[in-house]
Amino acid sequence: MIKLFATVFILTGCGYLGILFAMSYKKRVRQLIEFQQVLNLLEFDINFLAVPLKESFEKISKNSGGGVKDVIDYIRERIEKDKCIDMQRLWERGFQRFSDEIFLTQEDKKILLDFSKNLGCGDRESEINNIKITLSRLKIAENEAREIAKTNVKMYRGLGFLTGFFIVIILI
Amino acid sequence: MNTRYNEILSYFPQNLRRMLGRGMNILEDSLQEIRIRARLPIILGTTNGNFAITPDGELSPAVGGAYIVKESDVRQIFTAVCENSVYAFMEDIKQGFVTIKGGHRVGIAGRAVNGKNGIENFREISSLNIRVAREVVGAANYIIGDIQKDSGIVNTLIVSPPMGGKTTVLRDLARQISDSGIKTALADDRGELAAIFRGVPQNDIGIQTDVIENAPKSQAVIMMLRSMSPELIVTDEIATKDDADAVLKCFGTGVSVIASTHGKSAEEVLKRENIKPLFSEIGFKQIIVLQKEGRGINTKVLGEITKIRQEK
Hints:
Order of helices and strands of chain A: HHHHHH
Shape of chain B: globular
Radius of gyration of chain A: 21 Å
Strand content of chain B: 25-35%
Radius of gyration of chain B: 21 Å
Largest sheet of chain A: none
Strand content of chain A: under 5%
Mean pLDDT of chain A: 89
Number of helices of chain A: 6
Largest interface: A-B, 21 and 22 residues
Number of domains of chain B: 2
Largest sheet of chain B: 7 strands, antiparallel
Number of strands of chain B: 18
Order of helices and strands of chain B: HHEEEEHHEEEHEEEHEEEEHEHEHEE
CATH superfamily of the largest domain in chain B: P-loop containing nucleotide triphosphate hydrolases
CATH architecture of the largest domain in chain B: 3-Layer(aba) Sandwich
Low-confidence stretches of chain B: none
Number of strands of chain A: 0
Oligomer: heterodimer
Strand order of the largest sheet of chain B: 4-3-2-1-7-6-5
Helix content of chain A: over 70%
């Protein structure tokens, strides 16, 4: 009876870990898409409404979820509290603060940090150019993330259960 | 410290904030402007003269040992003034200034980018000048009695040299008259009277006042006449022929007008080519030349009245 329980426990535990790993690849893709949406909304606000970032982020936050929302909310709050800030450092801190909920790689974050460096410093045209370049870089990252996810999701799911089996066989 | 200064300080980087905070604390109400120029000392313009500021926050009339502004300081302050959204303030930047919360105005100078329609942007910003808004409630107390009479508002031209308190007096006149229930329209082409920040006037301009800001007087006045049914139109600084024409259009419409212009004396103003036509039979009935008495917070603005025409 105990053996049966232990087997089930190990199998579900390892399987769950495998799924968790697999999910992080999927979540990276999802967050890359979400950040592209953020940039699209921002482009609309800058191009047609010319509202300050603070207001734009407030709107964007309502349309986002999870880690992306947390990072955007953090940046918005900081801008509201302190007008004189270093935008790039602020985004960096946002990513650090919510590192548990952000599934982007260092390269993905670098794309967004490069973007944040010039955010809010230029006229409409340069802001739009900055957004367009970032969007295309994020798209490339998204495609790459999809490819990696395709192979890795199945692999990690399978690997989780297999490791479980392996441990069970060795122990029994 | 004067609470209005906290608002201004929040636009500065941390290190400057501490330094300036100390200096401004000493200055109390006498601060008029803060001049920030790249690679030069910060100059605080006060009613008692100009002062440079040392890294310890001490004020000094000489520039030796003063804190030298870095290019990055100017950039950072400029971006902060634009609420980290320079693109949203392009229209203001083209005009050469941005109004911040509290009604303070930040003038911009540097290398301009010229386009089809004149200045489009500033590529490199070398200096900023923060003009501290001075809303003096009650500034018009000494002259209001000569303007608002039982028979109505007397068409009045307010005259003083630059920095003589015209705008401050005009704003307070608008406030007092508007609060007494008279529908007032402000044609505020440079945004100095109301200092609108995100749709809300930062200065108290009265409960019955409507403002059109940053539009040419000639257009704003006609728009107001047609759409807002004012009883009084207030406008600042008549200088060009277009400005005078705009005011001329108001006379005879049943709307009273209070305006201001630069000048030393009534005789001098009456000789000015653009202003002359404004004293026709239906035009301005009096000129009030402002005279300041006292300094700093104790300044009194008195007016010397020249009647063009006696009221019936």
